[in-house]
């Protein structure tokens, strides 16, 4: 095990207070104010740890900009619309979305842009990326800081970075999975001694009946509840992430370092840790706030409905042969299924004001 500054701190916390839930460990690893993974670096791109859809092709952000424009129209073209991005990474998606929004000057002039970002390092990168945009843009640590009003929220690969709890089925009930120290002082996974009281009350029957030893992952709903509360009247949110449409048992917690899988307990603060999104649970949380849920549909379906092919075709017309090939490769990566493509693994879900009809891209095939 490497000896990162955060590792020392977590070890001390465990020595003092006992084993900590996986979710607490993930929070510290990703967003510790000094040593958190996102707080200390820009992890994107070929030289980083992973690549996201907006970094693969400008078309991704452009289509989301056009989606937001259509939703603004569906909302009745309010004079001011808050366009919020949760976890905006390098700011690439917002830059491309705002460029596409130029097609309708009335929409652009109604825009008030809000970036919700926990990392001061990435906030600096985002400010640089958006430096030439002549629109009001503000940065926030939490969605709660964004002023009320008609709102469109975009969140690409945001939820997967939020901490996940793991619970393990035992004869005695569901026990929280925790991280403690073994005899050598290294991190080791274990179980809380007591079962969580009444944990399975809200679980689907399939999970309740899972055999002993099964792992179930769940997230604190707070972020989704905040997003839903914000859009339930005059708003819509688009959640894009990798995950499953039905809640199920199984472990999806994973760590990535320089585009390779790593052990989640290795090098705390130096590697990315994520877990798949449970879209069923997300939808339940949104509906509990009175919001309406559309989808999830696959990313391939969503981008195809929004016109990824015609846009790629238009871009290829003015491109060199090498650029044209790169556009084709990028579109394939965003829409194809299988190991190398994101088309099926990534899902798109809209959470919105129940009075809105079907939103672009969200009607299943
Ligand atoms: C996997 S990256 C995705 C970046 C971007 N959306 C993209 O698609 O390229 C996750 C983003 O969420 C931010 N983030 C992680 N946890 C957060 C939190 N609790 N609050 C706000 N932002 C957070 C990270 O700093 C980063 O910008």
Descriptive notes:
- This protein has 365 residues and is α/β, with parallel strands linked by helices.
- The chain has a single domain (40-163, 219-352), classed as Vaccinia Virus protein VP39 (Rossmann fold, 3-Layer(aba) Sandwich), CATH 3.40.50.150.
- Helices cover 36% and strands 23% of the residues.
- The chain has 14 helices and 16 strands.
- The protein has helices at 5-17, 22-31, 37-40, 53-56, 58-74, 92-100, 105-110, 120-129, 205-208, 222-231, 279-288, 299-306, 308-317, 321-335, and strands spanning 20-21, 81-86, 111-116, 137-140, 151-156, 165-170, 173-181, 187-191, 215-218, 235-244, 254-257, 260-262, 272-274, 277-278, 292-298, 346-352.
- The strands form 3 sheets. Strands 2, 3, 4, 5, 10, 14, 15 and 16 form an 8-stranded mixed sheet that branches.
- Strand 6 and strand 7 (173-181) form a beta hairpin.
- Helix 10 (222-231) packs across helix 11 (279-288) and helix 13 (308-317) packs antiparallel against helix 14 (321-335).
- The longest helix is centred in the first third of the chain and has 17 residues, at 58-74.
- The mean pLDDT is 94.
- The chain binds S-adenosylmethionine (SAM).
How does the SSE layout of this entry go?
Blueprint: H1 5-17, E1 20-21, H2 22-31, H3 37-40, H4 53-56, H5 58-74, E2 81-86, H6 92-100, H7 105-110, E3 111-116, H8 120-129, E4 137-140, E5 151-156, E6 165-170, E7 173-181, E8 187-191, H9 205-208, E9 215-218, H10 222-231, E10 235-244, E11 254-257, E12 260-262, E13 272-274, E14 277-278, H11 279-288, E15 292-298, H12 299-306, H13 308-317, H14 321-335, E16 346-352
Parallel strand pairs: 2-3, 2-5, 3-4, 5-10, 10-14
Antiparallel strand pairs: 1-7, 6-7, 6-9, 7-8, 10-16, 11-12, 11-13, 15-16
Helix pairs in contact: 5-6, 10-11, 13-14
S-adenosylmethionine is lined by residues 30-31, 38, 52, 54-55, 87-89, 93, 116-119, 122, 156-158, 161.
GO biological process, one term: methylation
InterPro entries: NDUFAF7, NDUFAF7_sf, SAM-dependent_MTases_sf
Keywords: Methyltransferase, Transferase
